Amino acid sequence: MVAASTADAALRREQQRILRSSAAAFVVCAAVFAAAVIILPRLVQLPGPDLGSRLTVWAGANLFLVAWVMTGIGMVSTGRRRSADDIRGSAYAPPSPKIAVAAAFLQNTLEQAFVAALAQFALVMLLPSLSMPLIAASVLLFSIGRITFLAGYPRGAGARAFGMALTALPSLLAFVLGLGALVYQLAR
């Protein structure tokens, strides 16, 4: 009974850390998106409204997403080559503790990159006027999110939550904005 209440208390503390970290990530995302929409157009010449220019920006953004996937692949590959327990590959055993964090980072990064790419594409197609600064901000947040996710991973869910939220919230925003734009266009 005491062990269960101790475990429940530890779970609640970790959940509170996750909420605090996620709230901090939300504030950072809001600030970066606001700066991108307000300041970025004053600092740089954004691509025009034509589809070709928008798709070029989206393709460039995808290169940054792919770079993070490639980083994860490199981490797992290097770890496998250096570990007798892992060198045979994932078909023969789950990752050993030596590469477990790298494998989890790669898996999560693949998932996040897939969602980010599709959500950004929806923005490019459905909200052309707003998509360019939002995509620039999303790529920056994705990169910072991946770094902080990886750095926090060994210290638990509360420590990696900031990076997770910083990575996921831009995709959620793009999804909601894209869906809203689609509903608006269909209703007209």
What would you say this structure looks like, in words?
The chain is an all-alpha fold. It has one domain: Membrane associated eicosanoid/glutathione metabolism-like domain (Four Helix Bundle (Hemerythrin (Met), subunit A), Up-down Bundle). 82% of the residues lie in helices and 0% in strands. The model has no long low-confidence stretch (mean pLDDT 94). Keywords: Membrane, Transmembrane, Transmembrane helix. It is found in: Membrane. It holds the Pfam family MAPEG. One of its GO terms (biological process) is regulated exocytosis.
Q: How would you sum up this structure in a few lines?
A:
The chain is mainly α and 188 residues long. Helices cover 82% and strands 0% of the residues. α4 (100-126) runs parallel beside α6 (157-187).
Largest sheet: none
Task: State the distance separating the first and last CA atoms.
Answer: 60 Å
Total strands: the figure is: 0
Q: Please state the overall shape, judged from the principal axes of the Cα atoms.
A: globular
Proper CATH architecture: Up-down Bundle
Beta-strand residue fraction: under 5%
Q: Give the H and E element order.
A: HHHHHH
Detail the poorly predicted runs: none
CATH class: Mainly Alpha
Domain count: the total is 1
CATH fourth-tier homologous superfamily: Membrane associated eicosanoid/glutathione metabolism-like domain
CATH domain fold name: Four Helix Bundle (Hemerythrin (Met), subunit A)
Structural class by SSE content: mainly alpha
Q: Helical amount among residues, as a percent range?
A: over 70%
Q: What is the typical, i.e. mean, pLDDT?
A: 94
Pfam families: MAPEG (PF01124)
Keywords: Membrane, Transmembrane, Transmembrane helix
Main location: membrane
Subcellular location: Membrane
